[in-house]
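Today's session is about reading a structure prediction critically. Students often jump straight to the picture, but the first step is always the sequence itself: look for stretches that repeat, for charged clusters, for runs of hydrophobic residues. Only then move on to the predicted structure, which in these notes is written as discrete structure tokens rather than atom positions. Here is the chain we will use throughout the hour.
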Amino acid sequence: MRSWWWAWVGIAVGVLFSYAFAGAVHIAKGPFIEVADSSSAIISWATDEPSNSRVWYSEDADDLTEIAEGPERTTEHRVRIEGLQPNTTYYFQIESVPSSTSSKTENPAIMSFRTVAVGQQSVHNQKASIAQRGLSTFGEEETVKR
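Below is the predicted structure for this chain, in token form.
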């Protein structure tokens, strides 16, 4: 009798877990630092379904309070961040919400990049560095495909 009870509990937990993550947007590629110069950066990534494009960022990994957004729902996301300081490390977290639901991107990892010093060449197609791991890591095996 007890084994049946535990079997039902296991099934219920599995169904609830599957339902909770069913609406999550999955990262298909990235994120990448498409371009970073001394005062701006473009963060890009791809998702498996159309969703919004939002980047939370700041110079403090524990206080991502600045926000930059892309103009439309898409699967190929590009968000431009402006007003950055030269030669500075920035931390960021991407967010893609598929619709009016509360589901978000599958991975809340905090990533980082560094702006270049004034007068130095811009960085192009650089893989973002993982600063703090989330529930899973995305894009670790990805390379820039352009």
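Discussion point for the tutorial: The mean pLDDT is 79.
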